[in-house]
Write a structure and sequence with these properties.
The structure is a homodimer. Chain A is of the alpha/beta class. Chain A contains 14 helices and 15 strands. In chain A, the strands form four sheets. A five-stranded mixed sheet of chain A has the order 6-5-4-7-10, with helices on both faces. The first copy, chain A, has a five-stranded mixed sheet with strand order 13-12-11-14-15, with helices on both faces. Chain A is globular, with a radius of gyration of 23 Å. The two termini of chain A are about 10 Å apart. At the A-B interface, strand 12, helix 10 and helix 12 of A face strand 12, helix 10 and helix 12 of B. The first copy, chain A, binds a DNA duplex through helix 3.
Chain lengths: ~400, ~400
DNA sequence: CGGCCTTCCGTCGAGTGTCAACGAAAGTAG
DNA sequence: CTACTTTCGTTGACACTCGACGGAAGGCCG
């Protein structure tokens, strides 16, 4: 059966595999009950998956008076995902296992404005020593996830008219990788990637989830019904240029006035502080001041939280999320930003929508993007189609 | 094979059927190519579906030099869907065929505040003569769709704390029908239903769609990636209580101030006009005045459009829709309302998001809810699971 | 108008995948 | 150590799917 063809039984082994993707061990009887197929059939399909190397036996289950059932589970280290988080001034590269744990990661300065080839080459140059450290090679990579700081046409993996990334417009990122790694490449914008990363570390209660990145810009990623919502042009969640009430007369780099980003982003808060004679230029400076207990910085951050809360109150009415995570550099200002957000949200939004709503700072911190890039890659590679493609590749 | 069991071959006939749901005729070869299974197998499955009565032969295709291929298609009148649109003061009942055409419909005054039993009984009492008019009976009904003017827990079909519907809270609507019609019952809130109805009459370009109802209240239905987005508590799209800039000091019935609904709803515009000494009480009065060319009414409607546009500009940034339809009674004021909306939207929203965005009045008018209720019912009944359930029911 | 060609339909045997049953295996309890 | 319980791997029966084949239905041409 494995002679040049497929090892997967009825091609339904990939469906069975979906149950094991969470990494938890299961007995054959569990799987038979969950899928409705006979135990003997489950056994056959597990053999196929085992021969692919994706699953393996783990310690047997507890005996209930007879022979203890054997248990199988995903082998998390069977393959790796390569996660690449491209920022404006840095690139972060990591390797994750199949459940999304970041095994190794490394950051390096790199200007996205240098164009695709230098940045992606650097990312690969970082990845190789990481692979070596784990004793693996590029063949161990089952998929690549890439986050870029601008709008991306997800289906093709090409950036679409990114404002901050000269030379990247319509560049075929998956095509570039094709010469270097024989694995599928998924590309999405950095906020979506971070949303996926943070979402993956929350429980199932976060089925309707909003991730907000507050840094140099402000953006959001929407996960609804377990799916990332990208919108018609892939720019859903672009909340940085929604007008807020405090914004009359405040000009934004987008050419409009009163945008959220012009009031609540890191540079905007820093500019506010400079007007008070405080030396601050970036989000990082603001966070340092807040950490140091500077009252004026705290007040400014809280006001930024209120501005953000105004927009989030509207988004809560639209989307009715159950969890909102706030990440990005400014999230390091922690509770002060959130206090402002909550103040306005609980005043403005409808009680039913806020009753079970959690608003919190992102748990994943600066690893959100990397984790998300890994999750995006893994999600694709371990999908039924991905498993079948892998099967055809292995038994070619 | 049909002796007490299932007529559907490998239970995959229901998958094949999905291709035929659009009502277009297809040849066996078409279907074989589309599904990847052998022509002979397709033939067998079509036999099973034919014996269910859902599909049938239509005029053969054009010969390409040999025997012309036979073609099969959905029989749209094989079954009916019962559509019920419950409004605050009226109930509208209709019968649709399997592609969602409304065959007959009737409206009757009915106060939703009378409670579930009187309203639903009335709906059935209207439905029976309609059925008779078509020469059918209740057994012809394959599913029931119900729209209610308040939040609904979709999975269970129970209203959840509706403000305007005393006696309906947590009422088991599908359970009520169980004694009267042996068909699945789907319940959703009226705005979602209208969104489904309007969406079904737009082309595939409306994959990311926003429907806005402007009447006594203001609400929205979101369809993203082809799926209706209901949010964590099923109250997504509740945009009536988002604050707008013109709202300082304007009290809303929700207890807050500055809500969109307090400025741009039918009653709110009517109240504005009364301040100018014009006799107007409801949305209907406002629309009449606009139709009559009353300049003050036109100006008020346009201003309401601007207020709405402010909220929609934000929603465009969040969701990045490709089409926005505006329905509800106030939509009858047509271009004047839209002019205000467009004025603000094109000023505020980002160019990329508005570049390919269509903003229009709902094509389906006051039939939106009815069509949507029918589509909801049909969508469920003709899904793979629905077809299998039907099969088991017929060949029990 | 009849013969020939093209294309499609229905049937039938071969092959494959799935299932329930059965005996062997691997534990626990006394 | 024996009896009992539970699970595992195998195996033959059965159902489903596929490709092939002969017949059927229509167009084309002499």
């Amino acid at each position: 059966m494995t002679d040049g063809g497929s090892a997967l039984g009825g091609a339904d082994a990939s469906e069975l595999f979906q149950l094991l993707r969470d990494g938890l061990p299961r007995t054959v009887a569990d799987l038979a009950a969950a899928t409705g197929v006979a135990r003997s059939t489950v056994s056959l399909r597990l053999d196929a998956l085992t021969s692919l190397g994706l699953i393996g036996p783990v310690d047997p289950g507890l005996s209930t008076g007879g022979r203890p059932p054997r248990r199988v589970a995903l082998l998390p280290e069977a393959r790796l995902a390569l996660a690449i988080d491209v920022g404006a001034s840095h690139v972060q590269v990591g390797l994750t296992n199949l459940v999304g744990d970041v095994l190794l990661r490394r950051r390096a300065p790199s200007s996205v404005a240098d164009g695709p080839d230098p940045v992606l080459s650097l990312a690969l140059a970082i990845a190789d020593p990481l692979l070596e450290e784990l004793g693996r090679d590029r063949d161990a990579i089952i998929a690549v996830g890439v986050g870029l700081p601008g709008p991306v046409h997800f289906e093709t993996g090409r950036p679409s008219k990114p404002p901050l990334m000269p030379g990247w417009d319509a560049f075929d990122v998956p095509g570039w990788f094709r010469d270097h790694i024989a694995a599928p490449v998924l590309v999405d914008n950095d906020v979506n990637i971070m949303a996926l990363g943070e979402h993956s570390r929350l429980g199932a209660e976060a089925g309707h989830f909003l991730f907000v990145k507050v840094a140099t810009g402000i953006g959001a990623g929407i996960i609804s019904g377990g799916l990332l919502q990208r919108g018609a042009q892939g720019i859903a969640g672009d909340i940085g240029h929604v007008r807020v009430s405090r914004g009359a007369g405040v000009l934004c780099r987008c050419g409009n006035e009163g945008c959220l980003e012009a009031l609540a982003s890191g540079p905007a808060v820093a500019a506010d502080l400079r007007e008070d004679g405080i030396d601050a230029a970036t989000a990082r400076d603001v966070v340092s001041l807040v950490s140091a207990g500077d009252l004026r910085a705290i007040r400014a951050v809280r006001q930024a939280g209120r501005d953000l809360g105004e927009v989030l109150a509207a988004s809560i009415s639209f989307l009715n999320p159950s969890v909102i995570s706030i990440g990005g550099q400014m999230a390091a200002a922690g509770e002060h930003l959130l206090a402002g957000v909550r103040e306005v949200v609980y005043q403005r939004a409808m009680p039913l929508a806020t009753r079970n709503l959690q608003i919190m700072t992102a748990r994943t911190g600066d690893r959100a993007g990397l984790i998300g890039a890994g999750m995006l890659a893994i999600h694709h590679a371990l999908s039924p189609q991905g498993i079948q493609a892998l099967d055809e590749k292995v038994f070619s």
